[in-house]
Specification:
The chain has helices spanning 5-12, 15-18, 23-34, 39-52, 58-71, 96-110, and strands at 72-78, 81-87, 119-124. It has 129 residues and is α+β, with helices and mostly antiparallel strands. The longest helix has 15 residues, at 96-110.
């Protein structure tokens, strides 16, 4: 499912003037969001913008964060079977590595899965029919 130009531009437009040095990341993110590109790349672009902002600009990044949290989730799989999905909450970490480590620790520490090999992957949420 593609998203409207208006919706995506409304989210990204306020970032362009204040993060001009990150124009490539903003354009990459726009293309990814418009065409439902790989969700992991979208998350990486978000953290690139977040880091470039130095943790500031929460109000300008809030619509993008909300969009990602609404449309992206983390799938937990083992041996081809989906075990669960995790809600996607970006507000707790300062960088992508911290976010991923926290997610991995949450699965390993809070769950009792017997499998030694778990796979976590970003994906778009299924759209209710």
């Amino acid at each position: 499912m593609q998203h409207s130009y208006e919706e995506i531009d409304h989210i990204l437009r306020p970032l362009a003037p204040v993060l001009a040095r990150e124009a490539d990341a903003i354009l990459d993110l726009r293309e990814l969001l418009m065409n439902q590109g790989h969700p992991g790349k979208c998350v990486r672009c978000f953290f690139r913008l977040f880091e470039a902002a130095g943790g500031k600009m929460q109000s300008q990044l809030a619509p993008l964060q909300a969009w990602l949290e609404k449309h992206v989730e983390i799938s937990v799989r083992s041996e081809g079977d989906e075990l669960e999905t995790l809600p996607f909450a970006l507000g707790k970490d300062d960088d992508l590595e911290s976010f991923c480590l926290r997610s991995i620790q949450q699965i390993r520490m809070d769950r009792g899965y017997q499998s030694n090999r778990l796979q976590l992957a970003f994906r778009y949420k299924a759209i209710a029919a």
